[in-house]
Predict the 3D structure of the following.
Amino acid sequence: MAPFWGEDGSATGDTAVRRARMVDEQLRRRGICDERVLQAMEKVPRENFIAPELQGQAYADAPLPIGSGQTISQPFMVATMVEALEVAPTDWVLEVGTGTGYEAAVLGELAAGVWTIERHAGLAERARQMLEEMGYSNVHVIWGDGSVGLPEHAPFDKILVAAGAPQIPEALTNQLVEGGRLAVPVGTRTEQQLYIVRKTAEGPVVSSRVLCSFVPLVGEQGWKP
């Protein structure tokens, strides 16, 4: 079950005000309209997932460094990808690229369960500890190569890739249920287009969304180290 932040389940304090402003100014005003996504992002404290010296930038409209050459994604990009997946309360979701666990927490607010894979052991352990402390018992962190997914736990209703791939990883498409959705940035190591892939009986249907810039997806079906 997802955690509660106060006796009435609401967030409190100065960071809650900053979080609400972020949702209004960076998300709602730029076209994010799924109320479940907006509520999840107003609830999850982004400051818990960054270094103490960056606390003042927790709700900046930008990605932030988290170590190991990785970043925590810009809030608008998190919301854009999660909204595009149309996550239902009964869904099982795979996330590729845990980072420190922020996006996994947002997904944990929306889905029945989340499996999330991180290739950097230190980040995976940090995310696991934070998500456990915050009460996200429905989020499971794995250390490994996310480009090949988690076939032992497939199929998934939704898959989100928080790293830029050179092409749509076939292994991930194969691990979707029919009707399932995959959100993946595809392009070069520095610039990508966000693709949404819907799996159908006739094959994958691909649509494109915004331009974006993610760290590279490194692995068997991504970029080589």
User: Anything to note?
Assistant: The chain has one domain: 14-212. The CA atoms of residues 155 and 175 lie 5 Å apart. DSSP finds six helices and nine strands in the chain.
